[in-house]
Specification:
The complex is a heterodimer of chains A (about 220) and B (about 210). Chain A has helices at about 5-10, 30-40, 60-65, 80-90, 100-110, 175; strands at about 5, 20, 45-50, 70-75, 95, 115-120, 130-135, 140-145, 150-160, 165, 180-190, 210-215. Chain A is of the alpha/beta class. With about 210 residues, chain B is α/β, with parallel strands linked by helices. Helices cover about 15% and strands about 25% of the residues of chain B. Chain B has four helices and 15 strands. In chain B, strand 6 and strand 7 (about 110-115) form a beta hairpin. The radius of gyration of chain B is 17 Å and the shape is globular. Chain B starts with a helix and ends with a strand. Classes of the chains: A alpha/beta (about 220), B alpha/beta (about 210). Chains A and B meet through helix 5 and helix 6 of A and helix 2 and helix 3 of B.
């Protein structure tokens, strides 16, 4: 059984300059209470790995606006003008990665694979400086794994041991990121007794989850 | 009907009953409203749903059920919720029958550019590079011109999204495909003349009306 901890206590584990994966797609499936605690802590120089930077005032957008982020590795920043403004001002480094490549680079880090070999990005700006591999007459781009120090995960519910179940489109990058970080902190909407999540419905096994955030008061 | 709706309506005619379709955000997302609901067509949204439905009634929105633009949606009977690895496995793996993508430019080689304007706008590619590379069929849906400039060009000067050739271009003026001779005009939109398409298109093309 895991002890649930407060968002503020969890964030105290995260040092300045940490590499953090954050689940979510346009703020859907993002652990908002952990984000709020991160902003309140004043931690900075973060490298954030996430699908997108959401909108100002929502999810990862709050970290961008607060100036907590030094670098973001992401697929899309188009709906957050603040990300673009900080990038153009030289205050935020943005590494744009095709979405399918981003999720596989994270997954490969989590499942012990040395690279992703993909056609996506060949012949485009994404391929600059990367190795090309020819396999059985076909060309592929070699993309390297992305690891992180922490993964901040949103889930619909956790049971007392830390098994996670997700909701609809709020799952997105969450179950993949839960594989790829040294320390996994999960923020479930509900925490239920063991057995309430049927084993077939568990998407992230408890063995991957280090800390559970207590339910919202 | 405005230009975007005319484009969406024409693209909808390309959708085969029983197919799995991904619509890009913006103009392409308008296509769904022109596809009959009894055709067995499932719409995939890359944020993690197959079987995207219309907007929910006011007050019935589920914050955990959205499309790739973050808008509230419903799910149709037979829908499935998937994670991002499965979603892009379907896209890269050739399991999506058709994708409809917006574009800033499309060129004579069939390359489309839709993810940045250097020095001006950098939205990022999102899922567009995977979709343009991996879907079985790619339709570029776009307005023919922007501020009097042709978006159908001999060679994209904006960064391209994929080297894979798009299969069809649908604009408010015309429909093009590709043949051995290159870009080919195959259809004029209603009340549009060949002369008008010729004068408003930078790319050279052959005509097969």
């Amino acid at each position: 059984m895991k002890r649930s901890i407060s968002p503020g206590y969890a964030i105290e584990m995260i040092p300045d300059g940490a590499r953090i994966m954050i689940g979510g797609f346009m703020g859907v499936g993002t652990p908002e209470r952990l984000i709020d605690a991160l902003v309140a802590s004043g931690i900075g120089n973060l490298t954030v790995i996430a699908n997108d930077t959401a909108l100002p005032g929502k999810g990862i957008g709050k970290l961008i606006t607060a100036g907590s982020v030094r670098k973001v590795i992401t697929s899309h920043i188009g709906l957050n003008p603040e990300t673009q403004r900080l990038m153009n001002a030289g205050k935020l480094e943005v590494d744009l990665v095709p979405q399918g490549t981003l999720v596989e680079r994270i997954r490969s880090a989590g499942v012990g694979l040395g690279a992703v070999v993909t056609k996506t990005g060949l012949g485009t700006a994404v391929a600059e400086g990367k190795q090309i591999l020819e396999l059985e007459g076909q060309l592929y781009l070699i993309e390297l794994p992305i690891h992180a120090d922490f993964a901040l995960i949103a889930a619909r519910q956790a049971d007392y041991v830390g098994n996670l179940e997700y909701a609809l489109t709020a799952q997105n990058f969450n179950p993949i990121m839960a594989l790829a970080a040294e320390t996994v902190i999960a923020e479930p909407d509900h925490i239920v007794p063991v057995g309430m999540i049927p084993p077939d419905a568990v998407r992230t096994p408890a063995a991957l989850v280090d800390h559970l955030i207590e339910r919202a008061k | 009907m405005d230009a975007k709706d005319r484009i969406a309506q024409r693209v909808a005619q390309e959708i085969v009953p029983g197919s799995l379709v991904n619509l890009g955000i913006g103009l392409p997302s308008l296509v769904a409203s022109y596809v009959a609901t009894d055709q067995g067509v499932y719409f995939q949204s890359e944020n993690g749903v197959i079987g995207l439905g219309s907007r929910p009634p006011e007050g019935m929105e589920d914050p955990d059920l959205t499309d790739a633009g973050g808008g509230f949606v419903t799910a149709v009977p037979g829908a499935a919720a998937i994670d991002s690895a499965m979603s892009f496995g379907l896209i890269r793996g050739g399991h999506i029958d058709l994708t409809v993508l917006g574009a800033l430019q499309v060129d004579s080689a069939g390359h489309l550019a839709n993810w940045m304007i250097p020095g001006m706008l950098t939205p990022g590619m999102g899922g567009a590079m995977d979709l343009a590379t991996g879907a079985k069929r790619v339709i570029a849906a776009l307005q023919h011109q922007t501020r009097g400039q042709s978006k159908i060009v001999n060679r994209c000067d904006l960064p391209i999204t994929s080297t894979r050739q798009v299969d069809l271009i649908v604009t408010d003026l015309a429909v093009f495909d590709y043949c051995d001779a290159g870009l080919r005009l195959i259809e004029l939109m209603p009340e549009i003349s060949l002369d008008e398409v010729g004068s408003k298109t930078q790319a050279s093309f052959v005509v097969a009306l």
